[in-house]
Amino acid sequence: MKVLIAGGGTGGHIYPALAIANQIKYLHSDWEVEYAGRVDCMEGDIVPKAGYEIHNIRIYGFERYYSTLKKISVFFKMFKGYSDAKRVVKKFCPDIVIGTGGFVSGPVVLAGVRKKKKSLIHEQNAIPGFTTKMLSKWADTVCATFKNTKEFVEHPGRVVYTGNPVRREFDLYTKEIARKTLQIDMDKKIILSFGGSLGAKNLNLAMMYLIEKLQDNDNVYIYHVTGKNQYDDFCKGCEEKGLNLDKINNVEILDYIYDMPLYMNASDIVISRSGATSIAEITYMGLAGIYIPYPHAANDHQTKNAMEVVKGGGGYMIEDDKLDGDSLFEKVNTLLTDEEIFNEVCRASKELSMKDSADLIVKEIEKLIM
After folding, report:
1. Which residues contact 29 (CB under 8 A, 6 or more apart)?
2. Domains and CATH numbers, the chain
3. From the centroid of its chain, how far is CA 123?
């Protein structure tokens, strides 16, 4: 069997795709799995390192705020993307085409459908994006992370609730092994915070205050990821506040984390944006989450994602424009000082996760092509 997977632009689309690909290879080692995406985007770096061949699709996002001239330019580039997708589908001749979101999945799945190939798409967010809404008209199966996805697609009968798959790498560690690797004692509470690969300005500012409040607390260790573009500004900001990061022994500042499964396995509390993949990973690990939705996400889907977690008791949400040092410290301090609340939030977080999500998706694939 041959499987072509398309998805990209952000880790939120790429990592679920790789989780599906890895589960396919785990269950069906003789199946061929290849990837379609933009080689000049994140997937161009991540996918080959994961061991999969990637085919370049020349496609660009179409944003509402673009000028008329820019919209026209992007519109014509879409034809190149569809031409690339048709070529890849014809050459590889997959039995099924799978889309995990991002604009690149649109032309690839559409090209597969036009060639009468079986098709499946996976939607990570509580509110489906433009690509999912469009492709759901033709896809044989729509796998959904949240149960309410049926409300937003043209053929709700094709929607299957599978959850959001998490990479198998998250099962490679135990908390003990992760702590030993990072050389952190088991009796400390580890706080991990990150705002995505590029960082989040308001989160970085709030974290300066949190570090100031918790510096040298022997019961706490903080890993804060600034984002590659904001590392220097963050360090400079700390210096201006009188925080000497070299002398604070319970804080480590990173620009990016390449081994997120290691750090998540070691952590107790995670502060992050509320992208669907981040939520899936945090709840999979049963960690207490404090979510700051990205305010410019399409259809405000990150707020909807976070609300689902809050409703289930698995974490807290602070809106980006309301985030400051005091509001963040209040949530963190509650989790640090009230063990009963902390344990209840962690329990609820774990219950929100679907541990067998990747397996459920592969079963839907098998139904279509076996």
Report:
1. none
2. 2-165+356-369 (3.40.50.2000), 169-351 (3.40.50.2000)
3. 12
